[in-house]
Amino acid sequence: MHPQVVQDGPGTCPICKMDLVPIRNNGAKGELQLSQRAVQLANIKTVKTGKGQFQASKVLNARIVNNPELSEAVSSRYSGRIEKLFVKETGYAVAAGQALFQIYSEQLQSLQQDYLLQVRQSEAFPGEKIYKDLKVAAAKKLGLFGFTQAQIRELVRNNRTSPFITVYSPASGIVNELMVSEGQYVSEGMSVMRLENYSSLWVEADIYPNESAVVKIGNVVKVRVNGLSGQEQESKIDFIAPQLNASTQILTVRAPLRNSRNLLQPGMQAEVFLPLSGKEEAIKLPLNAVIRDGKGAHVWVMTGNNKFALRQVHTGKEDDASILIDSGLSGNEEVVISGAYLLYSEFTLKKG
């Protein structure tokens, strides 16, 4: 027979055609008696009520974005042709000092020739200060164009110029943009690629103008990233946009986030919980302990050995995990915090 089929008098089940049996009264109205096995299968867990600290908060829609302060632009210091790209796709991780690209530049070769000339002249006229100064100036010019001291020493040792030079990464990061391809000519100062460091990111949250008064620089907030349960972290608001977004009429606030384990990625959606008031002492329960239906809010109270009673309560403020109980419960009562909806389903089936 199907337990969801209930009627006022005797009859047969319209589904399986078996005779209906009377419902036994296992408890008072609003009560439910379960076996020990049923309690275990339903994973019923309870907690004793008592007053605890509670702080209401507002949930702000947010997103994870790059921290531009950790962005590194790699540009060409001279005119020439990209001879070889050692990194040919975005999303590639590079380390500081790693070769990024090789460039052919006649301008660079001319600078090398000038430096070797100054080296020979300073050696030919060791007593002339002007030649020493010209040598130093030529070395500085090479340095400005990206030549390292090791490359300058190698140039002198080989006494041979080359129009090719390899450019190395100035920092560790992820290649976020690649603006050139092999064989392409570039001008002095042209961007070749951009590196992003994701060890620290920003979370940007949206708030409406009429709510902006509650946001202050230095507010401690809790950030929860969608899809990363158990990875919440606290941060502080360090920036409030000076003006509204013209199209959305929304104000943006920002807070930094640690990302040492590289779990966060730009573009992820998040929630920022902004405290609205000071902490207060009150009876609070987990959100999933409260059942809401057309008659209001209810909780299950354990009244005896595996015996539960449905109790109507009046709820108050809530945050991301808890809700205040304004009335309907007293201290030191056992309230179901896991399996409440299963109990409610069982109660509905048995009581009709």
From TrEMBL:
Name assigned to this protein: Efflux RND transporter periplasmic adaptor subunit
Domain Heavy metal binding residue range list: 1-22
Organism annotation: Arcticibacter tournemirensis
Source species, domain of life: Bacteria
Keyword Transport assigned: yes
Pfam families cross-referenced by the UniProt entry: Beta-barrel_RND_2, BSH_CusB, HMBD, RND-MFP_C
PANTHER family documented for this protein: CATION EFFLUX SYSTEM PROTEIN CUSB (PTHR30097), SLR6042 PROTEIN (PTHR30097:SF4)
Domain CusB-like barrel-sandwich hybrid: residue ranges: 73-195
GO biological process: copper ion export; plasma membrane copper ion transport
Cross-referenced InterPro entries: Beta-barrel_RND_2, BSH_CusB, HMBD, MdtA-like_C, MFP_Cation_Efflux, RND_pump_MFP
Family to which this protein belongs: Belongs to the membrane fusion protein (MFP) (TC 8.A.1) family.
Key words, A-Z: Transport
Domain CusB-like beta-barrel intervals: 201-273
Domain Multidrug resistance protein MdtA-like C-terminal permuted SH3: start-end pairs: 282-340
Single GO molecular function: transmembrane transporter activity
